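lol ok so funny story. i was supposed to be doing the assay writeup but got distracted and ended up predicting the structure for this chain instead. priorities right. anyway since i did it might as well share w the group, maybe its usefull for someone
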Amino acid sequence: MLSSRQRIFLFIGLVSGTFFFTVCTGPVFTLFLLKIGVREKVLGMLSMLPSIVGIFSLWMIRQIAENPVKHFISSSWMLFIVEFCFIPVVIVANFLSYKIVLVIFSILLCIFHFATQKYVYAWFPVIESIVPYNERGYFLGRLRITLTFAGYLLLVISSKILGPEPEFLKFFYVLLLIWVLTSAFPILLSNTGIPEIKKKPPEKIAFIDEFFKIIFNKDHSDYFKFLSVWTFITGILGPFLIPFYKTQLGLSTSFCVNLVSAQTIGYGLSAFGWGKLVDRHGSRYVLFVSCLLAVLHLFFLSHVHLIPFELMKKLLLVASFFGGVILAGQLMGDTTRRMALAPEENKSSYFAYMLVFGAQLPVIIASPLAGFVLERFKHFHSGIYGIYQIVMIISAFMYCLLLFHIMKMRPVKEKPVLEILRDTISENLMKLKDMITIST
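and the output, tada:
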């Protein structure tokens, strides 16, 4: 177990490690790419880079499994270095051609995602080894609420720096600020003193054989199906929300960042509550409720263009906030279920295979496909719906199918979903009855 000082170093290091991802690889990079002329089809291709890198990094699985702590720390330094390399790109973008900038940017993204993949492969076994099972919901909730408030503050500052229609120099200021703050990431993790994870050498079998050994287990197979469909949906929607706000709704750059800020604060405020809910009712219940809310969220976004502009902006801030709440629930349920299902042997391989085949491979199909459809049919309209609205409605329908699958997943240290829902409704009805009785 870690000492109090080591826990503080680890916690601050994990939080600072998310700054670049939260601010830059999300809204800032997307807005920068839109500024240099990138459109949906290319955005879709760029969105699948993490998944491609993930698949071609399978060779790292066994290497990382032998010493996850070593790779956990080394990947933080690698990320810190490559993040610095993005800074000059936004300056030279004003002088170089669109294609040259895009090539340089794509190469740096590949290196960044390679380092991220290495970090994620090591993250799960490291956290699993130092955080007891019955404390993980609380730990993840506390971690996420902290990094979210920090991310929200940085997004607000970035919005102020960028302004409505930023020049390239303002993107430079944002990236430089984030990089300086991220320096705590590798420095603190290197001084945390995380103990080595002692384990038996992994079984020497072929990658594909090991993957199918996992999939042929019913619980793992059901979770894999859920993960694949869920990440397919996020691959359709995630990369194109900023273009939707910017090109379809006519919102300014700074307001687009504000929407991401609202999503971030919703994510953080709800993370602790979702964590407690996971500890009390289990991961399936949280997945069911958050996916149900996602259907309502998508239905609103597909009709928001019908609302007057000024009112639409206010409602979008509220919707973005609840979008963050929904995302927090989905990630919390997914993370805790993955940890609960992981076999005692070959945990690193299990986490890696689920990440690559269940979470990244679907994105390779979803993001380019969605980007092609959105750009190819950008002038299509059917009544009140454009192509963006139609894609959102289709995604909501896919979420409905996912709800039925979640209900069929077997409990892991938890009650069935329908039983939990019945107990919750009965408990609330009894409280309401008591309130009525007291008031009368």
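Residues 4-191+210-422 form a domain with the Growth Hormone; Chain: A; fold (CATH 1.20.1250.20). Residues 98-130 form the longest helix (33 residues).
back to the writeup now i swear
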